[in-house]
Amino acid sequence: MNEQTALITGASSGIGFELARCFARDDYRVVLVARHLDELQEAARLLHQEFMGVDILLLPFDLSLPDAAAQLHAETTQRGLRIDALVNDAGFGETGYFTDTDLETELRMIQVNAASLVHLTKLYLRNMMERNEGRILQVGSVASFAPSPCQAVYAATKAFVLSFAEAVQHELKQQKSAVTMTILCPPPTDTNFFRTAHAENTRAAAHTASARAVAEEGYDALMEGASRSLPTLGAKINFVSSLLLPDSMLATLMNTQLHATAR
User: Fold this and answer.
1) Contact at 8 Å (CB) between 9 and 33?
2) Rounded CA separation 220/240 (Å)
3) Cellular component terms, GO, for this chain's entry (predicted)?
4) For position 157, which CATH number holds?
5) Domain that holds residue 51
């Protein structure tokens, strides 16, 4: 039996749920974190249905609150849980011209997508460094590679995640640590993201990757200790384009995907 524990944020649906499924398949104890207990309970039901005997702990926390990350870490510490794998998947977007979108929504987005991710990484990475073992998966996006008009704040948070993860990866190598950090940069994926971001009718939403396929590629990269996972050909093309094209052209291309109505 695998006695390791994985903590996954944003675990009630989408890529987060599929990542939890990967860990459950490999006999990890899974700690599922999301805002709503009822959605976590449904996710746990589905996992128990597929993987009989999997050990699941549900922790409803709203990571848009500034103290939630510290409270989550304190809860797992109090329960005596050693987190062997941390997956920072929680995140959401908002679509529209920056002058028109809601500021409070965007400030919550920055808190979830960036600030809570940093906070959780700081706390659990320190625990892992003490043991000199552990894995962290940071979920970025192909939006990490380009400015994205009509999702300006979301793309900026994902660019932050990419820069942050790459810098810490370098630090871990300098420290000769056995702890690994992987960044997963999915393409547009079939999840609740587009509905939550009010982007259901964009071109990006019309052509999406499978959440399960994205999660499995990211999971394999995490287990291999890879620095980055670019699941699907689409993600790889986005990355190569970011190296070859100027930001002004990338912004135009992203605007086409996010502002035009899908047919």
Assistant:
1) yes
2) 22
3) membrane
4) 3.40.50.720
5) 5-259
pTM greater than the 0.85 cutoff:
yes
Length of the chain, in residues = 263
25/7 Cα distance (integer angstroms): 15
Burial class (CB in 10 A: 0-12, 13-18, 19+), 104: exposed
The answer to whether the CB of 16 falls within 8 A of the CB of 191 is no
pLDDT band at 262 (very low <50, low <70, confident <90, very high): very low
Q: Which amino acid is at 174?
A: Q
Residues 6 or more apart whose Cβ sits within 8 Å of residue 67:
none
Total Cβ atoms within 10 A of residue 148? 28
Tokens of 171: 């630090």
Question: What's 203's DSSP letter?
Answer: H
Residue 104 identity: E
Tokens for 149, please give them.
């008009």
Cα–Cα nearest to 146, from 30, 49, 241: 241
Any bridge partners for residue 33, and if so which?
Answer: 9, 59
**What confidence tens digit (pLDDT) does each residue in 151-206 have?**
999 999 999 999 999 999 999 999 999 999 999 999 878 676 656 766 666 666 65
Q: Are 188 and 204 in contact (CB under 8 A)?
A: yes
Q: Number of folded domains in the chain? A: 1
Integer Cα distance of 25 and 160 in angstroms: 31
Question: Would you list the DSSP string of 59-71?
Answer: EE--TTSTTHHHH
